[in-house]
Amino acid sequence: MRKASFPPIVILLDFLFIFLFVITQKESKTVDIHIPEDKLFHTAEIFHPNSEKSTKHENSFLLDCGNQLECKNAKSKYDGEVFIYIPPSLFKKISEMTFFAFESDSAKCGKLSIYISAEGELDIPKIFDQNKCLNKIPNLRQLYEQDS
């Protein structure tokens, strides 16, 4: 009976493929957006896909509804997917910070955690405390603290 054997080059290429796959997975950039646990901020709206407001929210940003009381009530009321509508002004600030974090030569963050305060604004101190890579970008903290 003949045994199956693989040439060493095939085994080497398999290991190389696995190594490169693991490396690319570790370097993928992710953004986590954290909203207040106890209550939604005042500019947020609960939205469900069958809503009559769907045309208004066509070009906006929606987050999955979390464990807030408003979300739990809406999920039971609409019996399905429920989202949190993020206003365009807040989404613009999140986008800018994400751009700086991932595209700046001095930072190159791999993962970014964005925190939204109860007032519906970026929680700048918490964002910079949790994302040390942002502190490497010159004057970024001052820029965001001026806007607050």
From TrEMBL:
The keyword Transmembrane applies. It comes from the Bacteria. The chain crosses the membrane at residues 6-24. Keywords: Membrane, Transmembrane, Transmembrane helix. This is Uncharacterized protein. It comes from Thiothrix lacustris. The lineage of its organism: Bacteria, Pseudomonadati, Pseudomonadota, Gammaproteobacteria, Thiotrichales.
